[in-house]
Amino acid sequence: MPLRNILFLVFCIVASLAAWAAGDRGEHGRRFGEVLAIIDRAALEPVAGDRLFGAAVEAVVSQLDEHSAFLPPDEQADLEAQLDQRFGGVGLQLALDEPSGLPLVVAPVPGSPAARAGLGPGDLIVAIDGIPARRAALRDAVQRLRGSQGTTVTVRFVPAAAAPRSLDPASDPSLDPTARDVVLVREAVKVESVLGDRRRADGTWDWEVVPGVALVRVTSFGEHTAGDLAAALDAIERLPELRGLVLDLRGNPGGLLSAAVDVCDQFLDDGVIVSTRGRRSATGAAAVLDVRRAGRGAACAGVPIAVLIDGLSASAAEIVAACLQDNRRATVVGSRSFGKGTVQTLLPLADDRGMLKLTTSEYLRPDAGAIHRRTGDGDEQEWGVRPDPGFEVTPTAESLARLRRWRQLRDMPPGPRADVQPPAAAAPAEIDEVLAAALRIVSATTAGTGLGGKKKTSGHADEAAGPGQ
Q: Residues with Cβ < 8 Å from 318, sequence gap 6 or more?
């Protein structure tokens, strides 16, 4: 037999064995392929293969846990923009103006296309690319303003100075004679996740909520959060007679585990930050703990800290609250946190058409206590983060609604509309009872004389398995 025939025969045998081995391991895959083929061949109404695949994967992932998911390409892009804290847009922070039912400009991002075009606090968006904005979901307006960098969007707005509250609710606000059109070119816009007490006229933050006490609000944990917090703490440490710091994590849904570790590291000179634990091995051996510890150097050393949490503080926010509480670096004030103590790893599919957000590990507090609330866990079980004894504060729904409105106004820099400025007499402690309790804590404690050295680097911060969302 010729050599080439022998080589060809050997190749066929090897290929057959490889196919058999792959087929043996992928029995369920073969069956799934068979089902798709039958549907494609015999179903009365044809369905696109991508749609069937997405539905099948979602059904499989739904058997795992509530935080695992299949993300199609559009949701994948949204999540990546969230975690990167950068997206293509025009740079507008919006809220819903209840009297008019229109999107209200809270503030433009400094230096953004919207800011350069002259949009300012109190302006009302009446149409986006010719589509009326009244009574539409605020999320829809935000999505229409976002898009690929370099593309344009036409925004029609009524300037704040035109007293838009006089608009007739039954009329079309886009026909108001004071309405103006502006064409904006979308750019990469950085999302703020570290906020102060109120905005100054130039768009920067005033950190001092009362003399000598700083307020830092962290709204999520993304790629830039730790760096932005470091810059904020650097400014705060220069405040004259700094005697307290309030770290507000209320409503923070979490984000990157690595960002939470970096944030904790900035406040600690030593100690365990968090431990992560993966799945058990195939032999049943216990999973190995990955323990993260703080490095040398801490910001605001000796300054009393209060951390604010509520039932919407989750994931990375709970890591920070538990870390500072267990290391006795802060007093936790508010109400019990959400109880989301698992880490999700983002795993792109080979064809780059979607990704799996898969729960791969759980994290534990520095004292090894559990944070994750499992199905069936009641109030008596150990999960989440509880406020320190004596500092449980649970506002009523009415006071929360009043606080949301007050905070929305306080976040706006000074503008021409007097009706969207917070009343001068409304001090934070008069509106926000949780913040008021925190202010009493830090005011009653004498700060240390030294502020300590700022943390320079933390070489272990990016070892996390992935984002915990």
A: 254, 309, 337, 338, 339, 340, 341, 371, 384, 385
Residues 107-163: tens digit of each pLDDT: 788 788 998 888 888 888 999 998 888 777 788 888 889 888 899 999 999 887 765
Rounded to an integer, what distance in angstroms lies between the CA atom of residue 260 and that of residue 215?
Answer: 18
What is the residue type of 314?
Answer: A
Measured distance between the N- and C-terminal CA atoms of the chain, rounded to whole angstroms: 63
Set out the domains of the chain in order of their start, with CATH numbers: 88-190 (2.30.42.10), 194-468 (3.90.226.10)
pLDDT in tens, 273-327: 999 888 766 555 556 678 999 998 899 999 999 999 999 999 999 999 999 999 9
**Separation CA 375–CA 402 (nearest Å):** 33
Q: Residue 235: phi, psi to the nearest 5?
A: -70, -40
**Using CA atoms, how far apart are residues 399 and 417, in angstroms rounded to an integer?**
25
pTM reported for the whole predicted model = 0.76
How buried is residue 331: exposed, middle or buried, by Cβ count under 10 Å (0-12/13-18/19+)? buried
CA–CA separation, 108 and 117 (whole Å): 10
C-beta of residue 469 within 8 angstroms of C-beta of residue 344: yes
